[in-house]
Design goal:
Number of domains: 3
Order of helices and strands: HEHHEEEEHEHHHHHHHEEEEE
Distance between the termini: 119 Å
InterPro entries: DUF6990 (IPR054259)
Transmembrane segments: 6-34
Number of helices: 11
Helix content: 40-55%
Number of strands: 11
Keywords: Membrane, Transmembrane, Transmembrane helix
Largest sheet: 6 strands, antiparallel
Shape: flat
Strand content: 5-15%
Radius of gyration: 34 Å
Pfam families: DUF6990
Strand order of the largest sheet: 1-2-3-4-5-6
Structural class: alpha+beta
Amino acid sequence: MRDMDIVVLFSWGVGVTLFTLLSAVVMMFIWALYYSAFKRVRLYCQVRKELRRVLKQPVAFEPLSGEIPMMKPSFEEKEFKDFSLIDEEILTMESATALLKSLGGRVEIEGKGDHLATFFLPDREVQFLYNAEKGYLQFDCAIAVVSGIHAAACQTIDPYNSGRLITLELSFDLKGLEIFEEKVSAGCLRHALEKAFEKAMGEVDLGNMLRSQYHILPWEHKVVDPKFSSYSLRYLAALALIGDVETLDSYHKSFMNGERLGFETSIQEEHLERAIAIAKAVEETKQPSYDLLQQTAKSFSMEVESYDYFKITDPNFCNRRRSGYENLLEEKREELRQQGYTVYEKDTICEVDGKKARPHILYMKDGEVEYMDVKFKIDTENY
């Protein structure tokens, strides 16, 4: 009997021990599940928080073809909206970029590593390069003035045209913003920008350029290139941007009387009506603009989200032009060397009329320093 009690007691002890161990294992398992779930919830919350932060910023898309991106956009406009510097403050690359953005510019990293700043004026765009390759800020790299407003006018007149439209190149200067100091102040950059914008708007008359390119009447124009939109459409867009209401109105009356005057069959009365509306707006405001085109499109119940598509977006345009023009200048330098002149290296800074300058070509003639600036002619050949 006693032996039996011992066996029962032993069995009970073993049972309690096994139950305790099993309970501990179950508790550990439950705790592990709870901890894992807690970590997942915390991670989920962190991911949600980060996702909300990222979605507040515009997305920078990378090319799908595997090619190296031509530019690396910076889209922190809000960060620089209220940015300001006193005129006397000396700029660094970071503060110069912030200042340009605060003044309304878009800044990107161009394919060769230069910073590219783009400013959007009413009917044209200004692009210039700057860098710090020599250990200090340089704003004398290159500046281009271009316009996509003629292409935008074509699209407003005939939204369904499928031809290629080309940006107008208005001017280009290798000297950029013409700042030749090693230490550039905020005030100096602001002043240089004002001068550049004033020059960009005044140096090339868009109306005169369009008159020159589209002086041939459509029915007398013999060159036809199927890659481009019709000459008739481009001709009407030019008249509209010039504000030539009288000529457009006479064409419209002829169309209403059944006389097409030799225009291509793609041109209809509605296209002339839109061109007249643009021309009247230009005549009234004395200044064509993308906003004016957008308002005209809306008056014809045409849905237009933005005309930004027509504004210059090619980040390599400035550098391509700079490379081409520098090659031409080097040919001229070599020509002077062949004539026996001592020619200074490119980008040499000198003093002209008491001010620092960087002539295109600097050379010695009869023991005296001479300089030469080459005027580059913009190709305005029609297509």
